[in-house]
Design brief:
homodimer, mainly alpha, elongated, DNA-binding
Chain lengths: ~100, ~100
DNA sequence: ACTCATTGTAAACTGTAACGTTACACGTGT
DNA sequence: ACACGTGTAACGTTACAGTTTACAATGAGT
């Protein structure tokens, strides 16, 4: 896995949702029902997208929670790949003739 | 979202990987490089699939970590859906003529 | 009947992470 | 000077995956 770091969902949310709608962090946080700190950290890539937050965003923007979760998952897996090795033994697949 | 509860990835791992290969929990845990307890709780749906565990499984079974993570994500989102409401205000989309 | 492997799980602990509240310092614009 | 919006530090809470250790139950083999 040598692909480059996937985009953080918070960045996408900031650039593609908040900015076009001219929403401040304070306003958006209130509408989402979370603290200003929680949203600020999210859009500044200091926190991951939680399932809770994904649901709130999907409701507020009428998008699918899955699409937001997928962005986070790609990033989470990418990060996990960075800290190999893992000392894993390959399972003994039976040889079927 | 009224779909039924998605299958836990641990159950799939147990039924479709461990059982066909006649692997015990103890053996599989050792090969994955995790504690017996960690794997036991996973296959008994007491713990979620962590990104770490997904990578270990993907290495041991030569499958994609994404596919395992996707199972967990569906389950995670399904669980999050169960505890609504969320008091979220829909964003003010500008009316473009 | 006894032994051994396997199992699930409790207990105690650690590390991490999201979230809340509160408070501060900074910048911008009126 | 003041009001806003901002990022973020400092606290505390809650949740959860992971570890090691230990125990009781089960099942298979001798």
């Amino acid at each position: 896995m040598i692909k480059r770091k996937p985009t953080h969902p918070g960045t996408v949310f900031l650039e593609d949702v908040m900015k076009p709608l001219h929403l401040t962090v304070t306003e958006a946080a209130d509408m989402l029902g979370v603290s200003r700190k929680a949203l600020s950290e999210f859009v500044n890539e200091k926190a991951s997208l939680s399932p809770e937050m994904a649901l709130r965003i999907s409701k507020a923007t009428n998008t699918s929670a899955e699409s937001w979760m997928n962005m986070q998952q790609k990033l989470t897996l990418w990060k996990a790949y960075q800290k190999e090795p893992k000392n894993v033994t390959v399972f003994p697949f039976e040889v079927v003739i």
